[in-house]
């Protein structure tokens, strides 16, 4: 039990050219190089990716789910931010 | 004294608050919302899931042993490559599941320790030996087939990280079952000895596989709350029945006989198996199966022999970190 608990890493994979990296899961590794190798073995055994990011989990700051209301309500009440809020006469056609 | 009094009233407040939170939690479950790691959850929900997910992870890891036994003796290079890939998948499944279990707040090291010390359980099926090559076919066909029956509903489980891990697992599990069935088919179309070997493997694995679905509904201890929390969506007996109904025609196709002289087809077309020997189930669960001691000993040996690798990786990471700090300070 002399070995310290190894750090946790979050894994992001770009599955195809032109797509964003997407979170796929996490893993433990002593350092970044080992984390990349482990991510290759654990998350891309069937050609799932073209590129991998690993990020120390401790580097992520997350919003608090308990404050979901306060955080996202301002966006929900502003329906005028959506194109469907505005009436355009039919004769004008597609806009 | 005062501290104690304060503590009591705190605890009372907490109970009132917890009741309200528990009701809100159940409402989210009923609305089919997914629960995520940072959301509030009842302590019992956390405990049940930690137990279930980590046991599931241990099963994947211990499950590598009976199959790994045959990698060096696979009959052809094609079979060997497939079996190696399958065993690697089992390891991957274990790791997805450990990661999901950890999000509930127990460290990987604690979870692994609980398995190595024998405190945590794993699926009883892996306490049976793989005596012949046909056992590898039977494990893929039946053990993975039963696992798929269990796991597909878990893809819709209320706990987000578990459900997402199960989606990945189920995608890969289908290859496992098909490679197993193909091994059986090849043996059944081979010589009389090969077909007899397939039948012998089926005879030994059939009943333990039925036990994989857990005790009958009327005695299962975890079912009620798990159903209420949408961790479990079908009962043990329902899943067992689904499995038997799916498997009997496959055995007929192979020309193999299910070793159950009392099995009958009911009016609705379901294949109803004869009585299961639940004493055997209890014995294997209690640690008295044919391979319980071997499996744990093998896991402990692997863990101990890997210690130097973990220590070296940690020491190297520490050295690099210190060097970086020193450079930054210059």
Describe the structure.
The complex is a heterodimer of chains A (95) and B (330). By secondary structure, chain A is an alpha+beta fold. Chain A has helices spanning 32-43, 68-76; strands at residues 8-14, 22-28, 51-56. In chain A, a hairpin with a 7-residue loop joins β1 (8-14) and β2 (22-28). Chain B is an all-alpha fold. A two-stranded antiparallel ribbon of chain B has the order 1-2. Classes of the chains: A alpha+beta (95), B mainly alpha (330). Chains A and B meet through β2 and α1 of A and α4, α7 and α13 of B.
Supply the helix-strand structural class of chain B.
mainly alpha
Shape of chain B: globular
- Give the strand line-up of the largest sheet of chain A: 2-1-3
Order of helices and strands of chain B: HHHHHHHHHHEEHHH
Helicity of chain A, as a percent range: 10-25%
**What shape does the CA trace of chain A take?**
elongated
Could you write a compact summary of the structure shown?
The complex is a heterodimer of chains A (95) and B (330). Chain A contains two helices and three strands; from the N terminus they run ββαβα.
Question: Which helices and strands, and how do they pair?
Answer:
The complex is a heterodimer of chains A (about 100) and B (about 325).
Chain A (H helix, E strand, L loop, with lengths): L7 E7 L7 E7 L3 H12 L7 E6 L11 H9 L19
Chain B lengths: L1 H29 L12 H20 L1 H5 L8 H26 L5 H9 L16 H22 L5 H29 L3 H20 L11 H6 L7 H19 L9 E2 L5 E2 L5 H11 L3 H14 L1 H23 L1
Helix pairs in contact in B: 2-4, 4-7, 6-7, 6-8, 6-10
